[in-house]
User: What shape does this take?
Amino acid sequence: MAWPTIDRQSPVTDSDAPPLLSDEVKAKIRSFFERYETRRAALLPALHVVQESLGYISWRAMDEVATVLDIPASEVFDVVTFYTHYWTKPRGKKTIVVCRSITCELMGAGVLLEAFKRHLGVGEGETTPDGAYSLATEECLAQCDHAPCVLINEKKHGRVKPDDVPALLADPDNDKLEVPRSDLYDPVLGEDATTRPRGGERKG
Amino acid sequence: MGDYEPVLLRNVGVEGAATIGVYKKRGGYRALAKALKMTPDEVVEEVKAAALRGRGGAGFPAGVKWGFLPKDRDVTYLCVNGDESEPPTFSNRVLMENDPHQLIEGTIISAYATQSSIAYVYLRVEFHELFHILQRAIDEAYAAGYLGKNILGSGYDLECYIHRGAGAYICGEETGLIESIEGKRGWPRNKPPFPAVEGLFHKPTVVNNVETLCNVPHIIERGAGWFTGIGPPGSSGPKLFCVCGPVNRPGCYEGPMTITVRDLIYGDAYGQGMIGDRKVKAVLPGGISMGILTGDELDMKMDFADPAEYGLLGLGTAAAVVVSEDTDIRVVLRSIAQFFAHESCGQCTQCREGTSWMYKIARRIAAGEGGPGDLEVMYETAGNLGMMPGLSICGLSDGAAFPIRTLIEKFRGELEQHVREAPDEIEQRSPSTVRS
Ligand SMILES: Cc1cc2nc3c(=O)[nH]c(=O)nc-3n(C[C@H](O)[C@H](O)[C@H](O)COP(=O)(O)O)c2cc1C
Ligand code: SF4
Ligand code: FES
Assistant: This one.
């Protein structure tokens, strides 16, 4: 899934901002309730939907999720900060994750990571100035038979060599999945998905 | 070994095998129809008789676990453990990506046997493509009447939901997984109570691994006797093995638990030898948590009993990463230590502190800055970390301790030499020198 916009200007703390979650997002979150005995159990799915919709999980968004689930905001914060897949600041349109665990390391992930840094001009955990890419590392992605491996948003790439990096970065479809999608966890972007303010962008 | 007929992987590489039509054409969902004509207890008894041991790492017999459920329960949950985050393990991914209906069929039969009303499939979030494949297969199974109300007219109802994780190895631990479904951080629970008595939402719960459940339809269809006829006693049934690193044919392969580590690396049906005929320096044969073998210990059998003879914790996930002679052993030490320092959930003091100190020391040694006593501190820390001395809530700390202890024991000479006389940093090798 693409994380559509980047906003590095607005403050991370946005609790006094206008409401962020659209009615569609809230309805999507509520649609998970029937699956579990407690509302709280819908928290991980809810956060996935929020992150896909907003590009990240802001403080304001955590607050609003807490209201929908009827749990304290501190518990939402607790969960968001525990799991590495949730982020509280905007990222680039695409996130590149390089596996750093043992098989990939043995097969050259260290050199590969350096190549990504060089071509993107950013370090680990950073985003390119144009907001196109963020770079991250993760532990084993369970594709060690294709080491060294990389994820670009949802799409996996295996046996990536440093020489492959420029072509990979230039490919506009480097994050497109080839399988039919299920929209169960997909973002709710509304009709004007391309223009709607997102990710903490403020109006008036 | 070449004439072994795959069971679990029989549909891998078959065109359209992930769709219900092809799966059924190849014999799928026959076992479900058969199971629904048996009583739930009869299904449990058949799985017990097969002595199917859990494939998730601990090797606990599935039928026995199901038998722990209290008799007078109202609600039961089944959790399918598809968190698969142990380096270098990818067999669950291969099963679910290529043959999702096999897992769904195994899940329905196991849910029926345990009289579960909901099955949650816990998937690590990085399985994006797989999520879409599996969700589509679940939708197909609903449409075909294999899930939902009154399955195949049997009166049995089952809902099946995917619950996606969010990037935490510890959610593969069964009680961490349960907490994560409940919408909490994946902090493992103290046991007892075991999940069978008090699990998800405080209800009796069974947690089983993906590969474990994929075996169930075959046991029902062909019988426990067929299952116990494969492999040695105590390690029966078909088994998936992963092999990766600098081998000619990295991949996930199926065989009986009679094969050795050597077969896995060199066998024609498996890894087909080392790239460039390099020598094996070390192997981590059960995932990284179980411990390490030297290149002289390749006769270890990939079964539930033999790993202990080599000082290992167990068979683990039966996934082997091979380290070649030209790799500095400090790379392996640092990688293992980094993984556990990152993945410790932080609840138990000695696991949180111990794993992060071991990583700091391993990093120092790898940077050529190891000092006298560093190995001893690490070795001692590894000895005081785990459940074995009774100090921690879950098994992660033993998994952190075993590879480091066995690595220091088996490669002490090389490590000491680095610490003593070679204050050099590890050079980064280009992957092009590793695989052409
Ligand atoms: C730290 C840790 C991580 C684990 N990760 C997994 C995992 O990713 N997948 C899995 O099936 N079991 C994992 N397990 C084992 C589970 O706790 C549990 O034993 C298993 O899911 C039971 O299923 P089985 O009996 O079918 O093997 C892990 C255990 C520990 C201690
Ligand atoms: S042993 Fe480690 S991972 Fe397990 S509960 Fe304790 S701190 Fe968490
Ligand atoms: S070690 Fe990189 S995918 Fe497993």
